[in-house]
Every structure is written in C-alpha cells, then in structure tokens.
Amino acid sequence: MRPATPSVIEPPEAIATLETENAAKGSLLAFGNGRSYGDSCQNMSGVIVDMRAMDRILSFDPQTGIIEAESGALLRDIIAHAAPFGFFPAVVPGTQYVTLGGAIANDIHGKNHHRRGTFGCHVESFVLLRSDGRRHVCSASRNGALFRATIGGMGLTGLMLSASIRLMRVPSLDIIEKATPFRDLREFFDIAAQADTANEYAVAWIDQLSAGGRGILLTGNHAESGARTTTRSGGRLSVPIQPPFTVLNHPFLRVFNSAYQWKKCREKNVRHTGYRSFFFPLDKVRNWNRLYGPKGLFQHQSVMPPEGASGVVEALLATARRSGQGSFLTVLKRFGAVKSPGLLSFPRAGYTLTLDFPNRGEKTLSLLRLLDRIAIDAGGAVNPYKDARMEANVFAASFPNWRQLDVCRDPAFMSDFWRRTAGSLRPNNENSMQAAE
Fold first, then answer.
1. How distant is the alpha carbon of residue 48 from its chain centre?
2. Domain membership flag for residue 5
3. How big is the CA angle at 405 (ends 401 and 410), to the nearest 5 degrees?
4. What CATH number did the domain enclosing 323 receive?
5. Tell me: the pLDDT tens digits for 346-358?
6. How far is Cα 381 from Cα 371, in angstroms, rounded to an integer?
7. How many structural domains compose the chain?
8. How far apart, in whole angstroms, are the C-alpha atoms of residue 50 and residue 99?
9. CA-CA distance, 249 to 423, in Å (whole number)?
10. Do the domain assignments include residue 367?
11. pLDDT of 127-175, one tens digit each?
C-alpha cells in the first residue's frame, strides 16, 4: 500500500461533466469505500469520484431476491435490507464495507466460488454513464460487450450509477462452521475437493512459517435456524495509533500461528457462529492495517491450475520463507469451474493462495517478483485488484484478453494501475473507444 492524496470530487460534479461531454481524457475514476489494496482505484493524474454519497437502496423484490441500489451502497446495507426476507448476497468478500459498484468493478469472490462463482455471475444489470453523455443500460442481452467489460473492469468503462443483483435465499444469517486441522499441504489437497462438494463455504488458513504447510480447513453452511436481522455495530477493537514499525515480525507470527492453531483445535469441531465472525473477522478490528507499520502492506494473490497446484503452492510458501518475510494472513482455497461473465475476472478453476507482507521496500518487491514468476510459469495469474506494483508483462500473461477491455474503456476514465500496466503495453496511448456491441 502507498499513501495517496488524489483530487476528489462528488458524483453530481462528475455526472454533469459527463452529461455535457466535457470530460478530459484520463481525468476520472470512480472510488468506492477504499478497501482495495492496490492502485486500481487511484488516479493520481486526474480526479477520483467519491461514490459513497450515492448509497440508496432503490428497490427489492422479496419474491425473487433481486435488489437494485445505487453503486455507492455498502454490502453491509444490502445484507441488512434483505436479511429479514431470507436473502443474502450470493458472494461476499472478506469485508462487508465494500460498495456495490466496487464489488462489480473488482468482480469479487468469496469462500464459495466452487458453487456460486464470482459476484459478476449474479449481476442482472447496471446503468453506466459514459463520456458520450449517455446512460447505457447494460445486461447480458443489452450492451453485452460493455456488460462483460465492466464486470471486473476496475471502473474503466464509465461511471456506474446503479446496479441490480440477484441475492440467494438462505434459512438464516448464521453459519454452522466446522474446523478441520491438517498436518501438511498434501493432506489439504486430499480433502479440499470433498469439502467443497459437501459445503457452501470452504477456506483454509495456512501457517506460512511451517515447513510442511500445516493449517486449518474452515467449512460452513447457513444454519437452518438463527438470526434473520442485522445490527449495525462497528469494530469492537481498534489499533489506536500508528506504530513506527511493523509489529508483525517473525517472533510475533510464530506465537500468533501457534495460538491460532491451538485455539481452533480447542474449540468445538462444529459450532454455530454469526455471519460476521465467519465472513468478516477483520471488520472487528478498526484500523487493523496499522499493525503493518507506516509503510503499509503488499498482498500477493495468485491462482494456479489444478494440475500440479500442490507443488506450486509449496514453492510459493517456501520462497516466502527463504526470503525471511512472514505472511500474517495466509489463505488457500479452491476455485471451481463456474465462469464469470467478466472479461478480466481473476478467479478460474484451480487453487488460489493469498499472502500479506509488511512493506520492507525493495526486499519485499523482490520477493513479490519471484512469487509472480512462479505463478506465471505454472500457467496461473496474479490478482490485479490487490496490486500496486505488478509489471506489465505479468499482467499481460495473467490476462491475455486485456485488449478487449481497452477497446471498451471510456477514454475519460483511467487508473494508476491501467496506466502502469496496459499503458506500457499499447503501441500508443490512444483508446479506440469502439462501441464493440
């Protein structure tokens, strides 16, 4: 993560500029709630449009579970609105404080990709305002190219004003969680596919410092009885100050990993828990990112094909260990074969590994480049939505169809990520702005 202080405008100003066709090239980028780890939501050479004021729920059909909201609405508010009727988002990320527009722009995934795919798989339609001054209603059957480019398109196709999504029916918000310890990666891969078949949700925590890759597989399903309403409560804990250095060093990580393993093994193997604890544990700690120190963190997430995935994951973890840099939060999960409609969707059939590192400058950047190479050489990809330093060739190898998005990109919209990666890959800096419908 890097400090950024871009110019900020409110939606009415951006809408007026677009409707009068006065937006300059590369001058705009929509901004959600600032939960992205990279620079795909930054535009230091232009302005960002703070969409959080556009947060109204516009309609909800309790029969179908289709909800329409302005793009700045938080998933927290969508959950609260739909829960009393027995509905929940089909896909949620690790925090409920993301906007609807951000969830679509990043085509987020969750713990149930093996069953539900990405967030984009559940988008019915959205309204996109472009620099031609027009509002484009986009769906799978209407303005289809724009629809596909916008899902996972990192906000580059225009200003999303509102969207309709399909929620899934659930018996309650609560989760029946099961914790299954595994001794090493081999044991995880032996049980991963079966766990996905039997459960709605599945994700593994890995002790990155252990040589064998020990960890805990957490699976879950919605409880048949439990909470049907939500309460708005902030984090119970907080990191009140910014420490002058990262506290997430090797001694801390060894103690934390041992304590976490002990805690999960001591708890009941199966327990009834609230949805916040299961899906959004970090939301309980305000300003948790301060623990990484004043230079912040880098997150590396890669996906690799199922064939040979065990060896690739082992190589990634071993490379991090050899570098002397520990990952505070190391997550491993299996992606299913459900294909997203998005052009640049990151998830694909296989396994994905996520590692978080305190930013130690060039030492960390060198490690991340090594991790990139391992993933790409295995036929995998690196997640652009959580990136602030990916080289252009890694992006191109991860997403060989990136040019299709560039064709649909609105020339008034630009991000630091796109400028850094695709901008150096294009033969020139012009955008063709083809309709591509």
1. 20
2. no
3. 165
4. 3.30.70.2520
5. 999 999 999 999 9
6. 11
7. 1
8. 11
9. 36
10. yes
11. 999 999 999 999 999 999 999 999 999 999 999 999 999 999 999 999 9
